[in-house]
């Protein structure tokens, strides 16, 4: 999808219809209680509130949507930032994906404990980074967290974990006819999360050394440690022929605040592409990552409090490849809609999983009005939230 999207611009103007953003950090409770958005939400009808977050009511566990745009395009007419979320649990938070703008958004969301200072927040409370897959729109600002983060609170953390997919092992098959090209970096064409993070340090060694010798900042290995998510080997055999075998979720990380499980999702030809489940004392939050329909997401999200799910408006690829389509155009069209979840499928997925709240994020295209996404609630009995940047959703009571 990325190569196709990066060369195509769609039209339309995004306009936020419901205001329900609240601050995170020390001011969260007071903002929730006194903001106009909170007041309006408290008097809105049940039907209208179905499409927006409820006001915070003192929850110490919160989902913050840092960026809700899907794909690498900077969609014309949209103010959405790149895909990224933060799960706040008590006095710390975890970042899921690191799309463009994540550092700026974390500051605006008042994450961390020293968010009002110049060079001490918002990363001083960061407890981990989890990448669903290694497409650029999900990882492009990882380097900003790791390098510029030294002046935004990262110097205060205690060796945070970075988790994400491992090495694919082979390049994907060529899409469409023709001779395959020579791969980029043929000696290691598909580095995983640990390798990628190590290569970031190598690529920006000049900066890291300047900060180390001139500013006495910590060494990178003192601040973080990158890991590849250990997908069981039996599911890793066929990245080209079976990139999303049906499987049960598996737990791979746990600390005093969260337990994190993962499963493979259907974002072919990307492999491994992962969905994550965070279980906390207050409740559970699931992130689909980029995926087409797969029973793996339903298993991962079973009875979760919140499912954060991607979505694509099928009318967009239909406008790119209008009928009648020739064989090549049909292939491209199917490629787009099968690697993502179309509007009419999102609600039934949430319904079958039995989740309480469905949150839409990674919206493709990122400049559609809210009315387009309201149809995602069809077939779902719970609360639908059409995600916007800096929305905050309380978890638990």
What does this structure look like?
- The chain has 397 residues and is an alpha/beta fold.
- 26% of the residues lie in helices and 19% in strands.
- The strands form two sheets. It has a seven-stranded mixed beta sheet with strand order 6-5-4-3-2-1-14. A seven-stranded mixed beta sheet has the order 7-8-9-10-11-12-13.
- Helix 11 (295-300) links the parallel strand 10 (284-287) and strand 11 (306-312).
- It is globular and about 65 Å long.
- It starts with a helix and ends with a strand.
- Mean pLDDT is 88; it is low at 1-49.
Question: Secondary structure elements and their pairing?
Answer:
Layout: H1 2-5, H2 28-34, H3 36-43, H4 46-49, E1 61-67, E2 84-89, E3 92-96, H5 102-108, E4 126-130, H6 136-139, H7 142-146, E5 160-164, H8 193-203, H9 205-214, H10 220-223, E6 224-228, E7 250-254, E8 259-264, E9 274-279, E10 284-287, H11 295-300, E11 306-312, H12 315-320, H13 327-338, H14 343-353, E12 357-364, H15 370-373, E13 383-386, E14 392-395
Parallel strand pairs: 3-4, 4-5, 5-6, 10-11, 11-12, 12-13
Antiparallel strand pairs: 1-2, 1-14, 2-3, 7-8, 8-9, 9-10
Helix pairs in contact: 2-3
